[in-house]
Design brief:
The complex is a heterodimer of chains A (72) and B (317). In chain A, 54% of the residues lie in helices and 0% in strands. With 72 residues, chain A is an all-alpha fold. In chain A, helix 1 packs across helix 3. Chain B is of the alpha/beta class. Chain B has a 5-stranded mixed beta sheet with strand order 1-7-6-4-5, sandwiched between helices. Chain B has a 4-stranded mixed beta sheet with strand order 8-13-12-11, sandwiched between helices. A two-stranded antiparallel ribbon of chain B has the order 2-3. Classes of the chains: A mainly alpha (72), B alpha/beta (317).
Chain lengths: 72, 317
């Protein structure tokens, strides 16, 4: 459930097909730089009603999902 | 009684510095700088003083307004650092212009212009001023670590000014502060006090880009919404937003959250970079002189910066 939400948010943010995003997809593959990562952290916080560190060490979509799940 | 803006002016140093110029002195590239910030060029002093830029912008604004320096009741200068600690830059500009009114400096970093307008609104409301000059000057080139490729590429020098007269064109104005030096700081070099050993503050800009990006996106989005709410207007009624020109990515993100369409956001940071408190009045002068800003239109100006400070106002042009 968390993965699907994160996948759809990233797909919309980067205007790509959601089916191309897998847990092992890296943020670099999605062409997200560090400012994009901050933006996504902010959007995820709003979506899931949690608090994350701005410099959260997330390299893959799977890591984002794990981080969110640890806060829920 | 509030004010209306009756004249605008801007002054930039002569030397334009491109991203390619910068890639010769630090390890960077046009592609990196532009994709991260939207900046292509900036103007850097090769000797022009804060006084020259400030007085230059002020004279243009006074000419535009048809106001003589002697007619001014007050000069408010926003700057992080003039040419001297004393006299203040406001006093030096007053003298250069041949004005006789009180003058002082305000330091609210990049929010300085909005802070100055907010202060001016108090003088008008109290009936203590009829003509006020607000001039914003920031010489970022004097404050940067020119070996830090993550920051030195983002800023430029410049000055912007407005002349205010009595009127009812200010719909709302507010300023905020949340004191915090952790993510954005520029220190001084102190004299060698023989009684105080070991103070070695770095006299250059330090900024945690990601934290400040986060602060700025939230601040800009929330403040624009607060402007709309407190002015009792709707997003559709706003013709223009001039945000502090720090980074196009901040503006892109905040625009989505603000409820105002992106085309209404005026951007010129591709040309000037981040000129701190001068950025909004420089943008206002460009927009006004372009003919695109029409009398009667509603304009939001919204700033955020070191302090941490923010400020916003809604003006009927």
């Amino acid at each position: 459930m968390v993965f699907e939400k994160v996948r759809d948010m990233l797909a919309e943010y980067k205007s790509v097909d959601a089916s191309t995003i897998k847990p092992e997809t890296t943020l670099e593959e999605l062409k997200l730089d560090s400012l994009d990562t901050v933006q996504i952290v902010m959007d995820l916080e709003a979506e899931f009603n949690i608090t994350l560190e701005t410099d959260a060490q997330i390299k893959t979509v799977g890591e984002i999902v794990a981080l969110i799940e640890s806060k829920l | 009684m509030s004010f209306k803006i009756i004249g605008t002016g801007r002054e930039l140093p002569g030397r334009m510095v491109t991203n390619d110029d910068l890639s010769k002195i630090v390890d960077t590239s046009d592609e990196w700088i532009f994709s991260r910030s939207g900046i292509k060029t900036r103007y850097i002093s090769t000797g022009e003083s804060a006084l020259e830029l400030g007085a230059g912008a002020a004279r243009k604004a006074l000419d535009d307004a048809g106001v003589r320096p002697e007619d001014l009741d007050l000069i408010i200068c926003s700057t992080m650092q003039g040419d001297h600690c004393t006299p203040s830059l406001g006093c030096e500009i007053q003298s250069q212009l041949g004005a006789g009114c009180p003058a002082f400096d305000v330091n609210a970093a990049c929010s300085g212009f909005i802070y100055a307008l907010d202060i001016a609104s108090g003088y008008f409301a109290a009936g203590r001023a009829k003509r006020v000059l607000v001039v914003s000057v920031d010489m970022m080139s004097r404050l940067l670590d020119w070996t830090d490729r993550t920051t030195c590429v983002l800023f430029g020098d410049g000055a912007g000014a407005v002349v205010l007269a009595e009127g009812d064109n200010l719909l709302t104005s507010f300023i905020t502060a949340k004191g915090d030096s952790q993510y954005l700081k520029i220190s001084f070099k102190y004299a060698d006090n023989p009684f105080c050993i070991g103070s070695d503050a770095s006299p250059y800009l330090y900024m945690d880009g990601r934290e400040i990006f986060r602060f700025a996106v939230s601040a800009l989005a929330e403040d624009i919404q607060r402007c709309i709410r407190e002015a009792g207007i709707t997003p559709e009624m706003v013709s223009w937003v001039i945000p502090h020109q720090a980074n196009s990515r901040i503006i892109d993100s905040a625009a989505v959250k603000s409820g105002i369409t992106r085309e209404k956001f005026y951007l010129n940071l591709d040309k000037y970079g981040n000129t701190s408190s001068a950025s909004i009045p420089i943008g206002l002068d460009e927009l006004a002189r372009s003919g695109k800003l029409i009398r009667g239109q509603l304009l939001i100006m919204s700033a955020f910066g070191g302090g941490l400070t923010t400020g916003g106002c809604v003006i009927r042009w």
